[in-house]
Design brief:
By secondary structure, this protein is of the alpha/beta class. The protein has a single domain, classed as Alpha-Beta Complex (Spore Coat Polysaccharide Biosynthesis Protein SpsA, Chain A), CATH 3.90.550. The protein contains 15 helices and seven strands. Strands 3-2-1-4-6-5-7 form a seven-stranded mixed beta sheet, with helices on both faces. Helix 2 links the parallel strand 1 and strand 2. Helix 1 packs across helix 6, helix 6 packs antiparallel against helix 10 and helix 6 packs across helix 14. It is elongated, with a radius of gyration of 23 Å.
Length: about 425
């Protein structure tokens, strides 16, 4: 009796996995075609032409550096002090939400030596967005420039990111491109930087060409009066940048993505931290879509704009689809009826599955070649099938929590720059 029950269960697993494999084949092909199409379209997407203006008086800028128990914020502030922007036309604020008194003391000492403001709330209520809203009360600048604590701008950064605002009053936000200080640290950082490169090298330029780019959360500039007009940053959001971007676009303002203006930051260097980062981004992006789906799908946007906003905000679903497809195929293969190994059939099915699910991997390889980082390709491919599985589990958890409207706690990703 037990043997019959086990055989029935085994057959049920085999049939279910076969059905799942075939059902998910079509969305897998769709997402693969999407990533390949993004590669092709990126060839024709035009970059912003940097314009040099004869500017007699630069607008006053406030640089905000939100931080929570991170000494690396001092590295960021130090680089901001070296900017070639007129010294009397910008200020630096460190928004210190730290509960570590020693770190706060170090921040105070540095700030006192360098004429930098420090704001504190005594808590981390509302996460980063709450910190930004609090700093806004003490910001004198017409334009707000935000850096996460691990970012380090180049000397010309401020002039480059401010210039677009002087060309068009309808430009509400400007975003720079991220590159990474520690991208070659290990296999995790190579994969983490590759993920971001796919977005910033392929998807962001196309969104920019269509007029619907989104902010990244760091290395960005926003008109202060626009932040106030739209009611500030959405507190408790884990991707307040993305959610705010949708409100900016709905309000009729422009966002500009400057692909050639780069700012350096850090990527997670452990599997655990990369999983948590990607879970946070998946959760936040999907939440932004759920908050604004009516305006995105039925609002004033054109059909191409709607399509790209939809795919950008919900695109993390693709990794879950790929994982289910591959897992169900493997389960089907290993639970089949015992039979002589058919190498021809096995090869055909393997080739079919590989081609169907190769879109994102091809996109990774493409951007690595475009960025002249071919030495990283081997590590990225290996990590896609190892690190990528752990990351996808985190993404699935993030999306599930967003759908169920469960709050996900904010998490500080450890930075290499904090080891000082």
């Amino acid at each position: 009796m037990d043997l019959i029950w086990f055989k029935t269960l085994w057959q049920t697993i085999n049939q279910t996995s076969f059905l799942t494999y075939n059902i998910f084949f079509f969305p897998v092909v769709f997402f693969s075609v999407y990533f390949i199409l993004m590669c092709l379209l990126s060839i024709f997407s035009q970059r912003n032409q940097r314009q040099k203006l004869n500017i007699k008086e630069w607008p006053f800028v406030t640089i905000q550096i939100p931080t929570y128990n991170e000494l690396v914020a001092l590295r960021c502030a130090k680089k901001c002090l070296e900017l070639d922007y007129p010294k009397d036309r910008y200020e630096i604020i460190i928004g210190d939400d730290s509960n570590n008194k020693e770190i706060s003391k170090r921040i105070d000492e540095f700030a006192a030596e360098n004429n930098i403001k420090v704001t504190r709330r005594g808590s981390n209520v509302g996460f980063k967005a709450g910190n930004l809203n609090h700093m806004l009360k003490y910001s004198k600048g017409d334009i707000i420039v935000i850096f996460d604590s691990d970012f380090v701008p180049s000397r010309n950064f401020l002039k480059e990111i401010v210039t677009p605002f002087l060309l068009d009053k309808k430009i509400g936000c400007v975003q720079s491109r991220w590159i990474f200080i520690n991208e070659k640290q290990n296999i995790v950082t190579k994969f983490a930087s590759g993920i971001v490169m796919v977005y910033q090298k392929l998807i962001a330029p196309i969104n920019n060409a269509l007029g619907v780019p989104l902010l990244f959360g760091s290395g960005q500039a926003i008109r202060k009066d626009l932040i106030k007009k739209l009611g500030g940053w959405q507190e408790w959001s884990l991707t307040e940048d993305v959610e705010f971007s949708v409100r900016v676009l709905n309000a009729g303002y422009k966002i500009v993505y400057l692909h050639d203006l780069k700012v350096k930051g850090e990527v997670p260097y452990t599997v655990r931290d990369l999983r948590k980062q990607q879970r946070k981004w998946a959760y936040g992006n999907f939440n932004a879509f759920l908050d604004h789906w009516k305006s995105i799908l039925f609002g004033k946007f054109t059909l191409p704009q709607k399509a790209m906003l939809f795919m950008t905000l919900t695109g993390y679903v693709s990794s879950i689809v790929f994982l289910i497809f591959i897992a169900s195929g493997m389960i089907y293969f290993w639970t089949g009826e015992p039979a002589p190994f058919n190498i021809i059939k096995f090869s055909k099915e393997t080739l079919k599955s590989t081609l169907a699910s190769s879109g994102f991997l091809l996109a990774l390889i493409y951007v690595m070649k475009k960025e002249k980082k071919t030495s990283m390709i081997k590590s990225v491919i290996v990590s896609a099938f190892t690190v990528g599985i752990a990351v996808t589990i985190g993404i699935a958890d993030g999306i599930a929590r967003a759908i169920l409207r469960k709050r996900l706690n904010w998490y500080v990703i450890p930075k290499k720059g904090n080891a000082r």
